[in-house]
Write a structure and sequence with these properties.
Layout (H helix, E strand, L loop, with lengths): L17 E4 L4 H6 L2 H10 L2 E4 L6 H10 L3 E3 L12 E5 L8 H6 L16 E5 L10 E5 H6 L3 H8 L2 E5 H8 L5 H9 L2 E5 L1 E3 L5 E3 L5 E4 L4 H15 L5 E4 L6 E5 L3 E5 L6 E5 L5
Parallel strand pairs: 1-2, 3-5
Antiparallel strand pairs: 2-13, 4-15, 5-13, 6-12, 6-14, 7-8, 7-11, 9-10
Length: about 280
């Protein structure tokens, strides 16, 4: 199986599929229907409205109408618990900072049906100056950057996905009862390559991906790791630095996202050995 070289000349010159709008476009965006929005997300997989300051009620109504996954302060946040410990995010101060940064993995709202409408939304209403940056990796752009032979190889594979695999990224040593509850949730085998409206293709390889069907485990791990490295290279990633009032909408079928810790701010990290 091929290992994708992120230094390949294929990645040079590929633009990030991002559309940036000003606040004057907000009204049309909020009243547009799902098909109207998905059409715009086919090529521009991430839409950014700078300083939208979208009121909570219209934003929630917009998300409900689109069957969208809503992130940010309007979504429930996990509170620190006594087993957590504090790590400073500046690598010059803490040797663990880079470890924690690398622990922030790319996720998808699409694979396990969290965003059945194919749309995800994140809004920071008035507190953008304290929000951590968010990275969006556009898998359709990464697919377009592959050679035809590589595309044919990927299209032949299916991947086993499971909710429990996602949870292990967040809590490496769960209680046995919790692990059994996670594993009781549905696992599914899905095509690695997913056709998208408009004729493009996206790659399903977020943190729920366990193993490529029919491939020995170690070879599968190496292959998925290489493919994730390909997808998350700078040519295909948009990093959003939040400003107060920003609104970001993305195509959950073709975009992986991850929250990054702020380098100048403490962060919470789950303690090792928690039971």
């Amino acid at each position: 199986m091929a290992f994708y070289d992120v230094k390949s000349e294929q990645s040079s010159g590929l633009g990030k599929p991002i559309m940036t709008l000003d606040r004057g476009a907000l009204a049309d965006l909020l009243i547009g229907d799902r098909d109207w929005l998905l059409t715009r997300l086919e090529d521009m997989e991430v839409i950014v409205v700078r300083q939208a300051f979208c009121p909570e009620r219209p934003l929630r109504s917009f998300a409900d109408r689109l069957d969208a996954m809503l992130h940010g302060p309007l979504a429930p946040a996990r509170l620190p618990v006594p087993e957590d410990y504090l790590i400073v995010g500046d690598p010059k101060v803490s040797a663990l900072a880079e470890y924690v940064r690398n622990g922030h993995i790319s996720e998808s709202d699409h694979v396990l049906g969290h965003a059945p409408g194919g749309v995800s939304i994140m809004a920071i209403p008035g507190m953008g100056s304290s929000a951590a940056p968010t990275e969006f990796a556009c898998t359709a752009a990464a697919w377009d950057g592959l050679m035809p032979a590589e595309q044919r190889e990927l299209a032949s594979h299916t991947v086993l996905h499971g909710f429990w695999h996602d949870r292990l990224y967040h809590e490496r040593e769960p209680r046995h009862e919790a692990l059994m509850q996670w594993m009781a949730r549905q696992s599914m085998e899905l095509p690695l390559v997913q056709p998208l409206p408009g004729g493009r293709h996206g790659l399903l390889l977020d943190d729920t991906a366990i193993q490529i069907a029919g491939i020995e485990f170690l070879e599968s791990e190496a292959f998925l790791g290489g493919l994730r490295t390909w997808v998350t290279q700078p040519a295909f990633v948009y990093r959003h630095t939040w400003q107060p009032g920003d609104l970001v909408i993305w195509n959950s079928a073709s975009v992986l996202y991850r929250q990054l810790p702020r380098p100048d701010n403490p962060m919470w990290k789950m303690a090792q050995g928690r039971r």
